[in-house]
Amino acid sequence: MKINRTAKRTIEILELIASSSEELTLNDIATRLEMPKTSAFDILETLVELNMLYIKEHRLKTYAIGVKAYAIGIAYSKTSLLLNSANPILRQLSLQTGHTAFIAKENNGKLIFTLKHEPTKRIIATPEIGDETYLHSTAIGKAILAFSPHHEELIRKLQLLPLTEHTITSKVALKSELQQVKVKGYAISCREHEEHTMAIAAPIFDYNGVVSSSIGIVSLYKEGYDVEQDAQLVKEAAYKISRLLGYQG
């Protein structure tokens, strides 16, 4: 894959400034990175305009990491904290239920899987970390939709594709089910995403009380499945992770 030179230089500038123990000027940056001053100047001015950098010392015009870059770093650290905190809890949930356990988050109107643990004896094929799927047909997706502060906007943009004959394809029906999810504290997807599977999920909240992700289990559909027992385990796992993230509810 061909790497864009400007994008590469931009990242190199950010890395240099972030790692430097001394204040750097345009000349310092251009010299150390062996790039034309005009190119470095254009990139620096753009980064300042976007709040990725700021001018720390106006007389010498030295540069420092800006609030936007700091915010991106904080967002990464929160995600990293979630994954590190959740791993043992996810593993325990999988062992307790005997089912594959997932954590996933909403990304641009889709669901993206961020963590997974499979039981020793895997019965069904399941998504891999990084895979994307639909919000409306999955328990994890519905748990996020129900508790998201932006649920109205998310629902408005959704295309409720019929993946099976059991998939919810009406926004009125979806909203009604999401109200039930909020009451119960967990979501179910029964043969809605795949004809032979069912799933249970509960929301994970961050320190601001905002749903950040969702945790769930998926198994083969079978008659007489004790949903309540496994739902309680899923809710407990979600709450444990939420508390580790600073949630006070």
Automatic annotation (TrEMBL):
One GO-annotated biological process of the protein: negative regulation of DNA-templated transcription
SMART domains: HTH_ICLR
Pfam families named in the record: HTH_IclR, IclR_C
Entry annotated with the keyword DNA-binding: yes
InterPro entries per record: GAF-like_dom_sf, HTH_MetabolicPath_Reg, Tscrpt_reg_IclR_C, Tscrpt_reg_IclR_N, WH-like_DNA-bd_sf, WH_DNA-bd_sf
Keywords: DNA-binding, Transcription, Transcription regulation
One of the record's GO molecular function terms: DNA-binding transcription factor activity
PANTHER family: HELIX-TURN-HELIX TRANSCRIPTIONAL REGULATOR, ICLR FAMILY, HTH-TYPE TRANSCRIPTIONAL REGULATOR RV1719
Protein name as catalogued: Helix-turn-helix domain-containing protein
Lineage: Bacteria, Bacillati, Bacillota, Erysipelotrichia, Erysipelotrichales
